[in-house]
Specification:
The complex is a heterodimer of chains A (114) and B (111). Chain A has 114 residues and is an all-beta fold. Chain A is 0% helix and 49% strand. Classes of the chains: A mainly beta (114), B mainly beta (111).
Chain lengths: 114, 111
């Protein structure tokens, strides 16, 4: 069990550019989540996949954001036309659909938009 | 609206003593509660959880207490160790998947 991994760990970009982040969940986990965390706050839910199906998107996820999980394994989160307000830590988590469904988090991708 | 609140942004405790972290929630539909620990530049690490059908869960030095009538839970760490210095997040969810987090409490364990 290698845990949840995310790539890249850090991303600096200029306003208006597109960025894409990748998340690899724990291998047997069928649920995958994206959260965003800003300074001084707890993580906020963005979206959720069960296998390859995206089942919910938060109102925080504007139309500039898109997430995919094409084969029910890894997931990508793309932000188009980045804005300075997108600067945050983007966290991925995964869980197994069992009695507790405990979510395990990756190390996060720190995005800085200049 | 903040459905999970951690009203103490920081806590300082001497090594060997007990750390008590508090968390309040407003959503009566929450039925599963978790505590996560976070070091700088890392993701949250799962610590301990409790279902709403219980009022206490213990795992080594960590104990979580749940008072449903007061919509309050707490995390006790005893004895506190220097490696416990981190940010602790309280999280809760209803009978689905979406976690709501508090803003976190920074714990500093003094030698």
């Amino acid at each position: 069990d290698t845990g949840v991994s995310q790539d890249p760990r850090h991303k600096i970009t200029k306003r208006g550019q597109n960025v894409t982040f990748r998340c690899d969940p724990i291998s047997e986990h069928n649920r995958l989540y994206w959260y965003r965390q800003t300074l001084g706050q707890g993580p906020e839910f963005l979206t959720y996949f069960q296998n390859e199906a995206q089942l919910e998107k938060s109102r925080l996820l504007s139309d500039r954001f898109s997430a995919e999980r094409p084969k029910g394994s890894f997931s990508t989160l793309e932000i188009q036309r980045t804005e300075q307000g997108d600067s945050a830590m983007y966290l991925c988590a995964s869980s197994q659909m069992d009695g507790t469904d405990t979510q395990y988090f990756g190390p996060g991708t720190r995005l800085t938009v200049l | 609206d903040q459905q999970v609140k951690q009203n103490s942004p920081s806590l300082s405790v001497q090594e060997g003593r007990i750390s008590i972290l508090n968390c309040d929630y407003t959503n009566s539909m929450f039925d599963y509660f978790l505590w996560y620990k976070k070091y700088p530049a890392e993701g949250p690490t799962f610590l301990i959880s409790i279902s709403s059908i219980k009022d206490k869960n213990e795992d080594g030095r960590f104990t979580v207490f749940l008072n449903k009538s007061a919509k309050h839970l707490s995390l006790h760490i005893v004895p506190s160790q220097p490696g416990d210095s981190a940010v602790y997040f309280c999280a809760a969810r209803p009978n689905d998947y979406k976690l709501s987090f508090g803003a976190g409490t920074t714990v500093t364990v003094r030698a």
